[in-house]
From TrEMBL, chains A, B:
Phylogenetic placement of the source organism: Bacteria, Pseudomonadati, Pseudomonadota, Alphaproteobacteria, Rhodobacterales
Keyword hit for Membrane: no
Superkingdom per UniProt: Bacteria
InterPro entries per the UniProt record, alphabetical: FAD-bd_oxidored_4_C, FAD-bd_PCMH, FAD-bd_PCMH-like_sf, FAD-bd_PCMH_sub1, FAD-bd_PCMH_sub2, FAD-linked_Oxase-like_C, FAD-oxidored/transferase_4, Oxid_FAD_bind_N
Keywords: FAD, Flavoprotein, Oxidoreductase
Annotated Gene3D superfamilies: 3.30.465.10, 3.30.70.2190, 3.30.70.2740, Uridine Diphospho-n-acetylenolpyruvylglucosamine Reductase, domain 2
Cofactor: FAD
Entry protein name: FAD-binding oxidoreductase
PROSITE patterns noted in UniProt: FAD_PCMH
Pfam families cross-referenced by the UniProt entry: FAD-oxidase_C (PF02913), FAD_binding_4 (PF01565)
Length: 466, 466
């Protein structure tokens, strides 16, 4: 029997897609990547996933697991060989909320928005915030972080257990929804953030958090780049665990968003957009008897800060949280619309983030004066979406070698000179493979190879760690 | 050259302890365990640790790493063969606080109390709370959880990076103090909670949290066992991230502590100690302008709860936080003093914790009516220190086989019938090895074996995972 006939026997006719037109939305990634698959497998449950993986392993065919296909590193799309099999988890849609355990057991194909709609009915949320609407399985595979990381952590911090299909088709369950469990090596961490290489996650149990009942937002204008970190430390000291976001936005990124999305409210009008601004959010679960409104608390506290440390803050604007977040979430789209975008997903020790940006601005003003730095990011966790926008006709927009050289230089400065990460929250996929190959510790690469040998299969998916 | 001569050449005379009297405090564990070592190695830095491990690997000698020796599962002490080498990390004492990064880079031998004294000067803490004063390296090796887990997580949630000496003596650094870094498998998680088997952690970078400025405590008396979970959910909904502890204490454990430590204040006097009570703590980093005192908030909120849901709460007592925590931290000592103690460190899905305790109480009342159940634990994270106190002359106190049979039964019910963990926060060590051997998934044991082969050495320390 041919491989595809075998897959059809496993999946039934509705579980296998072969026509070009029907495969198109699976072959096309969210932003950059597009490939050509042999077929799309749409298993209905973990058992079918396991049977598909075992059959592919016996035929030496490569499977690329795919969730909602919103990733940014070509981790969920096929290459252009026409031989990859896409394995879509989109039919694994079960959601079971356990209110007492404050957890949810969900299929890998469940969308974040669907999980949060059901969780909200019980007063809970998976509070990982990002612009896209990924599937839970994809969030595990990339270890999604997002804009409220400083309060709620990444996926890793919220996964209580998972089931996965290993490269040879065996099914493994790890964790049983327990919060404390130290009965040996916690192997599930090797399935988190690794794009499915060591196994395809089919089911996840997630810790939920109480739904915030009350949120207030301010947009801060720091007096200068050197006051951003002191402002963060003041915010942490004053608000502690109520601080749920501290997001930096360069003026160039803000202007690009305002230009591109006319419905956005300019929080600075009629004044000009400043060089840099911070979206700060505080939240509480519920107001308690005697509690002042949260907006009053935030304004009062920032007022007190302005009196105590007038050198830190040039301005603070208040408004409805939805408006601030609409601006924040429009930055990415605005920057893409502003010209040819060369985007980096970097992170640093928190004290280094702004130093790196300043250093690159200075260097690029000499070597690439046409490039506009439109950075924004997560000051609270050291992450920075370092974006360069170059004019359509410039060398880096027209010559792939020039763009690649610029990319390599930025990454080298980030990793070698600043000890930073070349993939803060997007994982590896095909897009970051060359940087993994360049910078990963050879001992750790050896461990990945040893693990794959023990798992009895070649790795799954687009990335390679050995 | 003999092994010990080689060790002396590496460490110098002050780095090697051979005399019985000088080795005694290293050979003796915190509570249960006592062994006989060949010698104690006291390296001064990571380089010396690596040289010792390499030399031991070449001689086929077993090294048992040791921190402050406060563990409860015989993970840091030698067996009684007289051939094990204890490797003490006590000389690795460097502490470097990075305030901007809200992190600390510390040697494995640094005590939690010493780290927190230095961190407090910068307004930070490593907020993992437990009765003992362990070393940071030991906390990583056991993945310490503790009483404020529901707010701050375990060590795993707070480790930003570490350096470790692998079983063949190579040194590996993982993580560079970054919060977001998804550049491949996050191997450091295999070094956390694994008692040093895959490598000896010599240096750790830890995320710090802002020091709480304001804390209030109440002791709640639930109306019955069935109201404990609803009370937790109410507390989470009302206090959200301000809730820093929700600790259950059985009446039997409280009475044992009050009997044993006369300086403790009985929070219920002159009323009798209830069947069950909960120590609930809320914290905030700083009061903000207009904020009512935290004690008022807590009392007001519990008052409102009593009006809204009078069926949940029988009573609530308020007092100074220090008094509540003194009682909580005396439970363990009190229970040990009450008779022959048979202790379990279990965890469950949160909804199962009290059901397990009720089931065991019922079964034991038939089979072991002489046993007093003195449970206490972490209702907020499902952990329970399930303690049985039996009279000195009873079979389980005098016959090791009877005790072992009882142990095995309690663990079997916890793991098999309730899907729980037989080691919530104490890890494996020698004491839990038999349960690992009985309950670990064979596939995962195979992974451990494959990893050790790739690491090029037998495992380090007292536990075995292959």
């Amino acid at each position: 029997m041919t491989l595809l006939a075998k897959m059809e026997a496993i999946l039934g006719p509705e579980g296998l897609i072969r026509q070009d037109a029907d495969r198109a939305r699976y072959d096309q990634g969210a932003r950059y990547d597009r490939g050509v698959s042999l077929a799309v497998l749409r298993p209905a449950d973990t058992r079918q996933v396991a049977a598909c993986v075992a059959a592919a392993a016996r035929h030496g065919a490569r499977i690329v697991p795919q969730g909602a296909n919103t990733g940014l590193v070509a981790g969920s799309t096929p290459d252009d060989s026409g031989t990859d099999l896409i394995l879509s988890l989109e039919r694994l849609k079960d959601i079971a909320i356990d209110g007492d355990n404050a957890s949810a057991r969900v299929g890998a194909g469940v969308l974040l928005s669907d999980l949060n709609a059901q969780a909200a009915a019980e007063g809970y949320a998976l509070p990982i915030d990002l612009g896209a609407d990924p599937s839970v399985g994809g969030m595990v595979a990339t270890n999604t972080g997002g804009a409220r990381f400083l309060r709620y952590g990444d996926m890793r911090a919220n996964v209580l257990g998972l089931s996965a299909v290993l490269p040879d088709g065996r099914v493994l369950s790890m964790g049983r929804g327990l919060r404390k469990d130290n009965t040996g090596p916690d192997w599930k961490h090797l399935l988190i953030g690794t794009s499915g290489v060591f196994g395809i996650v089919t089911e996840v149990e997630l810790r939920l958090s109480p739904l915030p009942g009350d949120t207030a937002v301010a947009i801060l204008v720091p007096a200068g780049p050197d006051t951003i970190l002191p402002l963060l430390r003041q915010a942490e000291r004053r608000f502690g665990t109520m601080l749920t976001a501290f997001e930096g936005m360069s003026g160039a990124a803000i202007r690009a968003a305002l230009d591109h999305v006319p419905s956005l409210r300019d929080p600075f009008a009629p004044d000009p957009v400043p060089d840099y601004a911070i979206l700060m959010e505080v939240s509480r679960t519920a107001a308690m008897p005697g509690d002042p409104p949260l907006d009053d608390l935030l304004q009062g506290s920032l007022g007190a800060l302005t009196e105590e440390a007038p050198e830190l803050l040039a301005d603070a604007r208040f408004g409805r949280p939805g408006q601030g977040w609409a601006l924040r979430h429009a930055l990415s789209e605005g920057v893409r619309a502003a010209g040819k975008l060369i985007a980096f997903d970097l992170s640093f020790r928190r004290g280094d983030t702004m130093r790196f940006c300043a250093r690159m601005r200075e260097e690029l003003s000499l070597t690439h004066p046409e490039a506009v730095v439109c950075d924004f990011g997560h000051i609270g966790d050291g992450g920075v979406h370092f974006n360069l926008v170059v004019p359509p006709g410039s060398p880096c927009a027209t010559d792939p070698a020039a763009e690649a050289a610029l990319r390599d230089r930025v990454v080298r400065v980030a990793v070698r000179d600043f000890g930073g990460s070349f993939s803060a929250e997007h994982a590896i996929g095909r897009r970051n493979q060359a940087y993994y190959d360049a910078y990963a510790d050879p001992v750790l690469r050896g461990l990945a190879g040893g693990l794959l040998r023990t798992l009895g299969g070649a790795g799954i998916g687009a990335a390679r760690f050995d």
